[in-house]
Amino acid sequence: xxxxxxxxxxxxxxxxxxxxxxxxxxxxxxxxxxxxxxxxxxxxxxxxxxxxxxxxxxxxxxxxxxxxxxxxxxxxxxxxxxxxxxxxxxxxxxxxxxxxxxxxxxxxxxxxxxxxxxxxxxxxxxxxxxxxxxxxxxxxxxxxxxxxxxxxxxxxxxxxxxxxxxxxxxxxxxxxxxxxxxxxxxxxxxxxxxxxxxxxxxxxxxxxxxxxxxxxxxxxxxxxxxxxxxxxxxxxxxxxxxxxxxxxxxxxxxxxxxxxxxxxxxxxxxxxxxxxxxxxxxxxxxxxxxxxxxxxxxxxxxxxxxxxxxxxxxxxxxxxxxxxxxxxxxxxxxxxxxxxxxxxxxxxxxxxxxxxxxxxxxxxxxxxxxxxxxxxxxxxxxxxxxxxxxxxxxxxxxxxxxxxxxxxxxxxxxxxx
Length: 417
What we know:
Helix content: 25-40%
Distance between the termini: 47 Å
Shape: globular
Largest sheet: 9 strands, mixed
Strand order of the largest sheet: 1-2-3-5-4-6-7-8-9
Number of strands: 9
CATH superfamily of the largest domain: Alpha/Beta hydrolase fold, catalytic domain
CATH class of the largest domain: Alpha Beta
Strand content: 15-25%
Structural class: alpha/beta
Number of helices: 14
CATH architecture of the largest domain: 3-Layer(aba) Sandwich
C-alpha cells in the first residue's frame, strides 16, 4: 500500500507542486498580498455561557471561564456571515503583557450544524486545551464557517477556514477587551488534520487579523488532496470487496463532504457530476449527518452490494470516472485548497506519524517539499526515533503522544511574558 501511494504521489507531484493560492473577491485589499484587513464593525453578535452540549451542565473537563461566541466573519462568498467559536479564559491572573491567544483548529467532524464541536463536545482535545489554559493562554476554538450557523460548511476550503480563525480571534479580543481584560496582540494557531490544514491557511491569511501572528503548529495536516484520494483508491485496487469497503467508504465520505460543503455557495458542483447514480443517491446525507455516519452509510451500501456480488465491488457505482478533472473539483483539489503554496512568514512546526492512514506520510512529505520550495521556515517532526514500527504514530496518537511537546512549542513560539 505504501509503495502504491508513493508511486501516485510521485506521478502527481508536478501538478500538486504548482498549485496556486486562492484569491479574494473583497474590495478592501492590502496591496502587497490581496488579503482584506478585518474591518467588520461590531463583530461580536452574542455571547452565551458554554455548557456541556450533552447534559447542559457546566463543562466538566475544563477549568476555565467558558463562552460560546457568535461573531461576524467574511464568508467564502465574500459576504459577512455569522459563525460560532468557543472562547476559554484561564482562571489565573492576567499575564503582565496581557492574555495571548492560541487558536485550536479542530479536525473533520462534518458539514452539518450538529457536527460543530460546540454542539457535539470537544472530546479528547480537552486534554490539550486544558494544558494550554494552565500555561496561561486564552484558547479560541472556532467551529468554522457554516458549522453551528447558517449555511453549509465549505469543507476544506482553505480561505474559509482561515477567515474562520482570523475573524474569531478579532471577535474574541473584542469580547475580552469589552470585559475589561488586558489582551496582547500576539496569537498563533494549533490544528490537527483538517485543523492542520486550517492552521496553515491561517498562516497564509494571518494579515487579515491585523495583529501579531507568531506561528503555526500543524499536526497531520490535510494537504495534497488529489494524491490522498488517488493513493487510497489504488492501495486496495483488485482486492476483495470486504477489504475495499472500509477504505472506499472513508475516501467517498471525504468526497461527499467536499461536494456537500459547496452546496448553496457561489462556487458549486452537483452530486451527479462527482458520483455515479448509486452513490449520488446516498452522498447528500453528508449535508445532514456527521462524518462517521456518512462513512457508515456509504460503507453499508457497498457491503450489501458486495455480499450479493461474490464479494466484489467491481461494478458498484461510486465516483465518476475522472471526476477530479471536473474544473470546480480540480481547482479545489490542486489549487485553492492546497496549503503552503505561498511563503509563510512565521515559523511552522509539523508533526506527522508514519502509521497514519488518513493523512498518509507521503502527502505530508509533499507538503514539506512545497514549503521548502517557497522558502517557508519550518520544522518537521516525525516518529522515526521510535524503534518499534507498530508503536509509531497514527492519525490519533500523533496528537495524544505529543500534547506536552505541542504546549512546549507554543511556549517557544509565543512566550507567555
